[in-house]
Amino acid sequence: MNFGAGTALVPAIKRLTQRRSSAGRAEYERNAEYDGGDDTNLHDDWGLVRRRTTLRDTEKVIKHLPDILGRALARSWIDPTFSAAMMQDPLELLARHNVFLPDNISIVIETTASERQRVVVYERTLDGRRRRLLYLQLVMMAGK
């Protein structure tokens, strides 16, 4: 039986980062607002981002954070150490991987006995309430 890249549950590629066209990369870089800084440790095979990234407002968090957290969830599925760090303090883990969020953004990792990790991103509003912005969860699907 021949299993190609299109049927693999976890693609066997050298890098886990998403490859973008030059036009797509330019749009991403314009919108993500890179803040400069040291990029020397960002070019490993497990990087969540290619450059130090600061998402400065809620709109940019909603637009770009799902891609970054998707890579983090995929890695946590196969890397127990990374998964434990993500469960303990997701904001600190993102900061170690050069992703910085506004102070009013929080991330909660939820799990149950029957489900994998679910990442929920909240925004603290001006009146102190917590508003859910998005959530991500890896789902395994099979079809025939």
Automatic annotation (TrEMBL):
Top-level taxon of origin: Bacteria
GO molecular function: catalytic activity; transition metal ion binding
InterPro entries linked to this entry: CN_Hdrase_a/SCN_Hdrase_g_sf
Annotated protein name in UniProt: Uncharacterized protein
Protein source organism: Pseudoprimorskyibacter insulae
